[in-house]
Amino acid sequence: MADKPHTLTWDHSWSTGVKEFDDDHKYLASLYNQLFTACYAGQGPSVALAIVEKLVDYTNDHFRREDILFRQYDYPGREAHIHEHDLLRERLEDLMEVLSDTSKPHEISNATLAFLHDWIERHTKERDREYGPFLNERGIF
Q: Into how many domains does the chain fold?
């Protein structure tokens, strides 16, 4: 990835074959893009915090729904998948804590944006695509 982060563009290479989760991933990319735009347009930490809060809420809901199916169908990659979810949760919670501290000005660093960008894209294109065929074989599309 380049030094300066950039927006995410969902395309077919991200598809898991499970419509509900593909729609979720499109929305997660959209939330990241909103955060990216807010940071580079200088909209301030309160705007960034509101977007990060949406990211936290949405990822928690998305991860919960994935895990329900993983448990229901005994997905063999569940533990590794959940571990990656936990890493993102921790990073987002840390970011929310920093942005919530109004005693000093904060900006989201390029490194944080790069982490979020890379995590969303890599996790979706690699880990999430692994469960697609598994769930498709069980009638989940």
A: 1
Cα–Cα distance, 121 to 141 (Å, whole number): 21
CATH of the domain at 106: 1.20.120.50
Rg (CA), the chain: 16
Residue-wise pLDDT tens digits, 45-89? 889 999 999 999 999 999 999 999 999 999 999 999 999 999 999
pTM of the model as a whole: 0.91
Concatenated DSSP letters of 77-130? THHHHHHHHHHHHHHHHHHHHHHH-TTS-----HHHHHHHHHHHHHIIIIIIHH
Q: For residue 108, what pLDDT is reported?
A: 85
* Mean pLDDT across 12-20: 97
Give the separation between CA 72 and CA 15, rounded to whole angstroms.
Answer: 22
* CA-based nearest residue to 120, from 78, 92, 79, 94: 92
pLDDT on residue 4: 66
CA atoms of 136 and 126, how far apart (whole Å): 16
